[in-house]
Amino acid sequence: MLLQFVLDTGSSMFAFPAIDQSSILISLFKFLFILTALCYSVFAVIVVRQIQIMKNTLITSFSPIIFFVGFAHLLVALFVLGLFFVLL
Amino acid sequence: MADVIFDSSMRQGDPSSINHQRKILRGVRTKRSHGRRAQRQEETTSVGVAESRSQEQVPVRADASAPSSQDSQEQQITTHPGDPTPRWNGAHRNVDEYSDVMRQEKSSSNPFASYSPKPINFRFATQHLDEHVILVLRKHALTQLPWILGSIVFAFLPILFSSVGLVDFLPGTYQFAALIIWYLLLTGFIIESFLSWFFNVNIITDERIIDVDFLSLIYRNISSAKTDNIEDVTAVTSGAIRSLFDFGTVFVQTAAQQREFDFRDVPHPARVTKLLNELILEEEREKIEGRIN
After folding, report:
1. Strand, coil or helix: what is B81?
2. Residue B23 banded pLDDT, cuts 50, 70, 90
3. Beta B115-117 vs B133-137: how paired, if at all?
4. I need a surface site. Which of B153, B249, B253, B282 has the fewest CB within 10 A?
5. What confidence score (pLDDT) does residue B92 get?
6. What residues of B are in the A interface, CB distance below 8 Å?
7. For the residues of B179-233, what is the DSSP string, one character each?
8. A54 to B199: CB separation less than 8 angstroms, yes or no
């Protein structure tokens, strides 16, 4: 109710410029998507770091491939973050 | 001496092991060249000077029989006719010599194996120079089924959402962004689950047992106990699925700082228990025979 009152510019006694409710919702989603992509990029960095540590702890023939996958995963996460900044 | 065999037990990729192999090879080459030189000299000298020829060969033989460092390294690995398994004549015997379990197992080169006996191309950070990995254990592949099936279900959920029209209130670009976020999170879940399984290993060497716990991305615990600190080994297989697919938990009580090691949901728990008992026996035998470094 309070939100409706705040957003409903017609009922306001002050002459605020008209604010579209859907644009606020869209902005909220935009903020959430970018925040998620940012958090995910941090997660991807932690994954790469952990793979690096574990690769040195357990040396197997597959460890370099895992490291490569982790690094590719980080690049994808950064690409998505950049894409969201451009696209949204 | 030409039948020196290099195998997984020499830890391929290890710089120290490579240097060790190079030294041995250098020793073999030197002997071969000495042999060829001696042969050439033998061919050029006449039959009448057999005594002088034999005298010329003496220094070569003396070199070959001299207790150089190369030779002493060479003597550590020998093979027996008909048995390609190298035998370590030093403090430790080869595991095949005293373990019935390992004698029946072939070396594993599969990095994803849950039960990996005498693994090829496998080392760990704190491995000693003369320490050999005998068995690497992970959780049985069946225990990973829940997250694999879950991931497959989650991969198809966006189709359901779009058919219901759950995100229709968003513009097309935002729907696309939501889809990307969904699959990104799913990828993260899959990677984290796989890494937790892949790096969560139990290692049995000819000297100790090592438990590497990689429970999550922010929790890692590595503990080890020497074989002669093992006090009690118990294998527990409970439930129909575990009995059917032969996997269970092996509890190892030790006198080390970490009192108990548990190898959770590992394949062939009975075999693992038997192997650990054989290792304890061998350790005691080493003590009795004075083969401890």
Report:
1. coil
2. low
3. antiparallel
4. B153
5. 67
6. 13, 109, 111-112, 120-125, 170-171, 173-174, 176-178, 180-181, 184-185, 187-188, 191-192, 195, 198-199, 201, 212, 214, 217-218, 220, 222
7. HHHHHHHHHHHHHHHHHHHHS-EEEEESSEEEEEEEEETTEEEEEEEEGGGEEEE
8. yes
Residues 6+ apart with CB under 8 A from B109: A61, B119, B120, B121
Q: What pTM, to 2 d.p., does this model score?
A: 0.69
Residue of B148, B198, B197, B156 lying closest to B179 (CA atoms): B156
Instruction: Dump pLDDT digits (tens) for B159-216.
Output: 988 888 888 888 889 999 999 999 999 999 999 999 999 999 999 999 899 999 887 7
The Cα–Cα gap between A44 and A52 comes to 12
Yes or no, beta carbons of A61 and B192 under 8 Å apart: no
* Residue A58 to residue B222: CA distance in whole angstroms: 11
B4-to-B60, B80, B138, B155, B183 alpha-carbon distances in Å: 21, 10, 33, 53, 53
Exposure of B254 by Cβ count < 10 A (0-12 exposed, 13-18 middle, 19+ buried)?
buried
- Are B151 and B190 in contact by the 8 Å Cβ rule? The answer is yes
Contacts of A59 in chain B (CB under 8 A): 13, 122-125
Contact B174 A80 (CB under 8 A): no
Residue among B23, B42, B31, B22 nearest B1 (CA): B31
B286 Cβ contact list (under 8 Å, min separation 6):
B91, B92, B292
The residues of chain A scoring below 70 in pLDDT are 1-19
Tell me the HSE value of B174 on the side-chain side, using a 13 A CA sphere. 17
Largest separation between any pair of C-alpha atoms in chain B: 107
Least CA distance to A63: which residue of chain B? B111
Residue B111 has its nearest CB partner, among A26, A46, A60, at A60
How far apart are alpha carbons B72 and B70 in whole angstroms? 5
Asked whether this complex has an ipTM greater than 0.90, the answer is: no
Tokens of B90: 């030093």
A72 has a chain B CB within 8 A of its CB: no
